[in-house]
């Protein structure tokens, strides 16, 4: 039944307004188009009332009140602006400026600073009070961010964001009075502290106290208003975190998360260190024209026409002489569904290739093996169910490295919801505050899983004995078994350490154990599989990942590899195809590690330069990522590259545009959703 919210009638600046009971004066004003300046307030955070910039007059109150924390009441009369209020706000702003070194001219945040904007808005062009600041330290120990305490206004936004959204509670107020500053843990530097480097503190900081070390001095005097804001998604790990990418003159200036107060995604729109900073890093030498390796190993630039002729000619010749069986295709699964579909169709239908796979194909095969072995259904649970679970068991999973936001959800679960978290298997580092950690090798891990399944009243004690745990660990594991048996809503999270094993047996046991606890109402299993790359789930669903191993002893003649960002796994995977006479790589960057394994390099746009759809880590959702930057002049996008190659080998793609391709990929992904397994 819909609960009716009580309404309250009040007057703001002579205008009668009606708002929900419980709203603050600031919310009531904003809902009615009345602007009140703020500084410490942030829509995604709790209200604190620290800066007093939002003060207003309220009938019957002898003093000005902070509108961001004062709730409305029936019949209230509010004045948000008059000469006295403006004077008070200006004076308080002067004190803030006088307290520390806010010399905008030398601040990297100048032009993109809320404190500076407020000074313009309140026409505070000089100070009538004396400067009183002490010299404060700066902290440049972290690779991504610097802290300059001299520019901090102690608004506490960073402290609240770190605790309320990220669940880290690394930042806090230290010292008292004029010596107050925002510290990390017990007065550590950022690098020494337990900070995860997610940068949310920097995003909510209204001044230049927390700044991005990859980009600085990009805005001057309000020029941030000229920046283009591109709504996008991060495709680094499969959680599809929404982002706003700030771009100026085809330069990426910064990436911000879409922070929310409580509703929406359980992560409340935070980004991890990867989502915020990875794209700002230099990835290696950019490839901007096609290149061919000559006999003496040197690389020579060629035209697009020459490269298409060379690659299609080689593929055609080999196919005609020896059949497609000797051709292979390998792709990164960090690419969009469209690229993965295009690649698969080109290789399988156009080249009749003998083998097509993704670099993370072995993980897919282990999972597929586990289902076959256990004959169980595997429809994975949504990662959004993590906060609801009363117990989470991680097996061979290291979310801090791959999906750091999951690590944040677990931290909050442990600290704020008394969630029980146990980590089984070798993984490092474990989610912080995890009370149960058993870093055992695979043999013992299987015994622990079987102990969980049998319980301590069955064969559990015997199985546990075989696992050779230390006495304290045996006791701790018995607690885990008890917690698991009492748990009404457990969830398993499996990671790469397990899916990377050739043997599917442990995973099959886990699938069976998860089934033992019953499915979710949506028929999904209490299991999430953390996949290795940003769009592994899309690649698995589209069938670009192969269900078969690389055929042994094959005599490979030619191959085509489609790459994303530089990745250490490329070279080892290509080793399996050693001996191929001709290998062409399509890549945004010069793949240094493959220099002597490929013969031809074809440039393509980087992920920020190409649009596309990505599928979430659990395979349940897809999101469209529009491009934020233009590729370097002369670089063709993947669609153009494959269209040209297809035409020249005499193969007609069954879609005529990127849009058609996108629709086909979407249909294929949906088709898989109708099957009982989630990939
Ligand atoms: Fe209200 Fe700071 S914005 S007190």
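-> sequence recovered:
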């Amino acid at each position: 039944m819909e609960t009716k919210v009580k309404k309250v009638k009040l007057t703001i600046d002579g205008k009668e307004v009606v708002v929900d009971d419980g709203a603050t004066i600031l919310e009531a004003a904003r809902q009615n188009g009345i602007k009140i300046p703020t500084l410490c307030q942030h829509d995604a955070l709790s209200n604190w009332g620290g800066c007093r910039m939002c003060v207003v007059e309220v009938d019957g109150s002898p003093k000005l009140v902070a509108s961001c924390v004062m709730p409305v009441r029936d019949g209230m009369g509010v004045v948000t602006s008059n000469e006295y209020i403006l004077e008070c706000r200006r004076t308080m702003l002067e004190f803030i400026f006088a307290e520390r070194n806010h010399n905008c001219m030398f601040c990297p945040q100048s032009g993109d600073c809320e404190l500076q904007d407020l000074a313009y808005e309140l026409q505070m062009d000089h100070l009538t009070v004396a400067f009183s600041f002490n010299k404060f330290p700066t902290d440049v120990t972290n690779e991504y961010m610097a802290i300059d305490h001299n520019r901090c206004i102690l608004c506490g936004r960073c402290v609240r964001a770190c605790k309320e959204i990220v669940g880290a509670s690394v930042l806090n107020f230290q010292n008292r009075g004029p010596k107050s500053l925002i510290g990390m843990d017990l007065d550590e530097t950022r690098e020494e502290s337990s900070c995860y480097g997610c940068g949310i503190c920097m995003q909510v900081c209204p001044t230049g106290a927390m700044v991005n070390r990859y980009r600085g001095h990009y805005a001057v005097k309000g020029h941030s208003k000229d920046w283009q804001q591109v709504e996008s998604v991060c495709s680094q790990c499969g959680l599809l975190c929404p982002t706003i990418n700030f771009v100026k003159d085809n330069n990426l200036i910064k990436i911000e998360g879409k922070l929310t107060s409580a509703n929406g995604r359980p992560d409340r729109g935070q980004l991890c260190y990867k989502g915020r900073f990875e794209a700002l890093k230099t990835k290696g030498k950019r490839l901007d024209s096609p290149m061919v390796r000559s006999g003496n190993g040197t690389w020579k630039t060629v035209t697009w026409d020459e490269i298409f002729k060379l690659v299609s000619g080689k593929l055609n010749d080999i196919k005609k002489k020896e059949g497609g069986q000797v051709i292979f295709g390998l792709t990164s699964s960090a690419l969009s569904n469209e690229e993965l579909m295009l690649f698969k169709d080109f290789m399988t239908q156009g080249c009749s290739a003998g083998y097509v796979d993704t670099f993370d194909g072995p993980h897919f095969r282990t999972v597929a093996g586990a289902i076959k072995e256990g004959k169980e259904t595997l429809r994975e649970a949504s990662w959004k169910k993590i906060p609801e679970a009363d117990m989470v068991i991680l097996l061979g999973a290291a979310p801090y490295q791959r999906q750091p936001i999951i690590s944040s959800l677990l931290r909050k679960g442990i600290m704020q919801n008394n969630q029980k978290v146990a980590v089984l298997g070798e993984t490092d580092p474990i989610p912080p505050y995890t009370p149960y950690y058993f870093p055992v090798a695979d043999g013992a891990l299987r015994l622990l899983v079987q102990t969980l399944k049998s319980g301590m009243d069955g064969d559990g004690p015997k199985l546990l004995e075989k696992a050779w745990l230390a006495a304290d660990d045996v006791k701790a594991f018995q607690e885990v078994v008890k917690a698991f048996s009492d748990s009404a809503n457990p969830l398993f999270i499996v990671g790469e350490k397990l899916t990377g094993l050739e043997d599917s047996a442990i995973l099959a046991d886990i699938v069976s154990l998860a089934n033992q606890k019953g499915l979710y109402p949506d028929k999904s299993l209490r299991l999430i599989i953390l996949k290795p790359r940003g769009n592994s789930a899309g690649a698995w669903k589209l069938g670009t990942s192969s269900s078969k191993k690389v055929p042994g002893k094959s005599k490979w003649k030619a191959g085509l590899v489609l790459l994303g960002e530089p990745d250490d796994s490329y070279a080892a995977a290509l080793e399996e195809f050693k001996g191929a006479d001709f290998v062409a790589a399509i890549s945004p960057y010069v793949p240094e590690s493959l220099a002597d394994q490929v013969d031809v390099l074809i440039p393509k746009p980087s992920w920020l330069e190409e649009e596309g759809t990505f599928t979430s880590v659990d395979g349940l959702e897809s999101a469209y990522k529009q491009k934020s930057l233009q590729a370097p002049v002369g670089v063709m996008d993947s669609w153009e590259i494959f269209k040209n190659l297809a035409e020249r080998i005499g193969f007609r793609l069954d879609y005529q545009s990127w849009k058609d391709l996108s629709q086909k990929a979407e249909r294929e992904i949906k088709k898989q959703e109708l099957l009982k397994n989630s990939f």
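Residues 38-41, 49-54, 66, 68 surround FE2/S2 (inorganic) cluster (CB under 6 Å).
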